[in-house]
Predict the 3D structure of the following.
Amino acid sequence: MADLIATIPPGLVIDGERVESSDGQQIVVADPATGASIATIASASPDDALRAVGAAHSAAKSWRETAPRIRGEVLRKAFELMIERRDELAEVIVRESGKSWADAQGEVSYAAEFFRWYGEEAVRIAGTLMLAPNGDKQIIAAPRPIGVSVLVTPWNFPVAMITRKVGPALASGCTVVVKPASDTPLSALLLSGILDEAGCPPGVVNVVPSSRSSQTVGAMLGDPRVRKVSFTGSTEVGRMLLAQASEQVLKASMELGGNAPFVVMEDVDVDAAVEAALVAKMRNGGESCIAANRFLCHEAIADDFSSRLADRMRNLRMGPGMDRTNDVGPVINERALVDIAGLVDDSVGAGAKVLTGGAARPGQGWYYEPTVVTQVDHDDPILRKEIFGPVAPVTTFVDEDQAVELANDTEFGLAAYVFSGDLGRAMRIAESIDAGIVGINRGFVSDPAAPFGGMKQSGLGREGGHDGILEFMETQYIAAAW
Ligand code: NAP
Ligand code: MG
């Protein structure tokens, strides 16, 4: 069988054509399971990015005027093609991101659902009409597509983070330029082919992988034809893009970093909490913005919870995602491996205790062992920074007030998890935590029909649900006398 990766056209996608980079630069894509390169693709220059903006701008009028039903059907068709080609998409995701086969399959389903959901939403965009209070006019308020949108996405969900933006953008009538992460551009190029096949017209979705992200994105955000930036990635980069967006007063959506607390009260069924903890921590090998990053356990059950969690973590099979029996793959790159190891080593140096794992696996590929550390100090950096790997640090609290205080002791506010046998108590705690997403007695929370996004420095705006489409629209008010 021909190598699937070799069948993906390596060019930039501009106006429906696959083209070389204008200055011939390229990106080498590596397989985290071996460290070896698996593909070389075009790397967009700032000029290329601006040509993509031009293509999106030229396609904008006719796409905006395309009937909502037709726009919706393009998305519906793309959903169906993604499901048909699930294994192919999963394989490319595994090869370039390193995640497990099950996680890649899960990502394809999740990603495709955004196309289905927004295919349905495309025909449900409504405004309002009311008589003015003094009766002198009709107030018509109607949402309109904002215009050319620049979408910048991360490597941890190479397909889903794109469909979560492209779905609502296309449904609302916007055209886009996608700048995927340099570690995982192949999934984006494969997805682009699926959108073509689904009937998406040239110029509506352009894709410009670039190893010069700051220059290419900077050039696009400075172009007056662009009206919107939607970014998913680190808070650090998000802050810079927000500053750049201010120059042209772009509408901005920011899905940024997280530091999710996983709160376990003393009244839980410990086994159920451990199973959910495993999902909240280990989905995507811990490389998720909503991954449980801090386990806050009531002191009465912390030892029991930690040792049972360590037993489950110890038994996970680690290895390449292309071997479907493995539960955990490598982390994305060597830098990530070094960062994770540094956080654990420093925590252990400061007195934390390793129950399982605690080291990188020697040999080929970027593997870090599934790890549980306990007796972690409340001020330990491992509880302050995004770990983004298979490491569960456990610390304790004495009562509900302290649990809430610790949960909120972070500049992030993306996700939180609360476990308690008393639902009223769990609800009370959930409402006291400043997080955009809270899981109660469950570890898996993502759903394309739900609004996903962060409070505090975890972001601005929401993706998914009806909220997601409004991010790509602005309201026009027309004052009318009949
Ligand atoms: P990142 O370094 O911020 O990169 C994200 C994207 O921005 C990539 O496409 C990257 O391109 C690009 N980029 C980097 N520097 C840039 C610059 N100066 N100007 C313009 N673009 C730039 O984040 P990451 O390491 O890929 O992803 C991990 C982070 O994403 C974590 O913090 C995670 O929490 C967050 N995340 C958040 C969500 C959410 O929904 N809130 C979801 C997933 C991930 P290159 O690849 O070329 O550097
Ligand atoms: Mg890679």
About this structure: Residues 101-121 form the longest helix (21 residues). The pocket of NAP (ligand 1) is lined by residues 152-156, 161, 179, 181-183, 213-214, 217, 232-234, 237, 240-241, 255-258, 289, 386, 414, 454, 459 (CB under 6 Å).
